[in-house]
Automatic annotation (TrEMBL):
Role, per record: Specifically methylates the N7 position of guanine in position 527 of 16S rRNA.
Record EC number: 2.1.1.170
Binding of S-adenosyl-L-methionine, residues: G64, F69, I117, E118, R131
PANTHER family on file: S-ADENOSYL-L-METHIONINE-DEPENDENT METHYLTRANSFERASES SUPERFAMILY PROTEIN
Keyword Repressor carried by entry: no
Organism for this UniProt entry: Paracoccus onchidii
Gene assigned in the entry: rsmG
GO BP of this protein: methylation
UniProt-annotated location(s): Cytoplasm
Family (UniProt): Belongs to the methyltransferase superfamily. RNA methyltransferase RsmG family.
UniProt keyword annotation of Cytoplasm present: yes
InterPro entries on file: rRNA_ssu_MeTfrase_G, SAM-dependent_MTases_sf
Annotated Pfam families: GidB (PF02527)
The protein's name in its UniProt record: Ribosomal RNA small subunit methyltransferase G
Length: 198
């Protein structure tokens, strides 16, 4: 899958891939079945947000970061902007991996909060991202907590995304823009803003 990033960004992302593959034998960062297609399934997938979003400053929260998708990939891709990233991950071992990746890649724009999303004080973020964390109705409760009123969320969703949107509309009002996913014809990248309870 073609990605439009600089040579330096590619090199850092390859370094991150090597680190994630090494740690994956000890802790389950990504499903073993996805390892042969690691770059496309995880790195390119995450970079779709970088390719569609155009922010240059503010606070970005990645919720349920797991092995760093999309949080670490975005922190690398946006490292020359004034964005700062908070990666929220409740699993201690994954949080340790994320901190190790931040240190080894010399990222100065990212930090990890090892806690539950629903337990921490509002991050009041300008941007929120998430992948494979929860269905849209639950994600909207997280956005309600952590996304500021003028903010936007970037969500990588699988093939049930339209049904999730329909279900979420029963309790929430929000603006939605959708972008076709490069990883699968049925998946989508959702840009969500102006979230409110109905
Ligand atoms: C299925 S994994 C997805 C990880 C990553 N976003 C990805 O796409 O590869 C979901 C991650 O969210 C974390 N998580 C789930 N619920 C959470 C919560 N309430 N607060 C913080 N982290 C949570 C889990 O520990 C897990 O690492």
């Amino acid at each position: 899958m073609k990605v439009d990033v600089s040579r330096e960004t590619m090199d850092l992302l390859k370094e991150f891939q090597a680190l994630a593959e090494k740690w994956n034998s000890r802790i389950n960062l990504v499903s073993g079945s996805t390892l042969p297609a690691f770059w496309d399934r995880h790195i390119s997938d995450s970079l779709q947000i970088f390719e569609n979003a155009a922010p240059f400053s503010g606070h970005w929260a990645d919720l349920g970061s797991g092995g760093g998708f999309p949080g670490i990939v975005l922190a690398v891709a946006f490292r020359e902007t004034d964005l700062s990233f908070t990666l929220v991950e409740s699993d201690q071992r994954k949080a340790t991996f994320l901190r190790t990746a931040i240190r080894e890649l010399s990222l100065t724009n990212a930090k990890v909060k090892c806690d539950r999303i629903e337990r921490i004080p509002s991050l009041n973020a300008d941007y929120v991202s998430a992948r494979a964390l929860a269905g849209l109705p639950v994600l909207l409760t997280f956005l309600d907590l952590h996304l500021r009123a003028s903010g936007e969320a970037w969500l990588l969703k699988g093939r049930n995304w339209q049904a999730e949107v329909d279900e979420a509309r029963e309790n929430w009002a929000f603006n939605l823009e959708t972008f076709p996913s490069k990883t699968s014809d049925e998946a989508a990248v959702l840009k969500v803003s102006e979230v409110s309870h109905v």
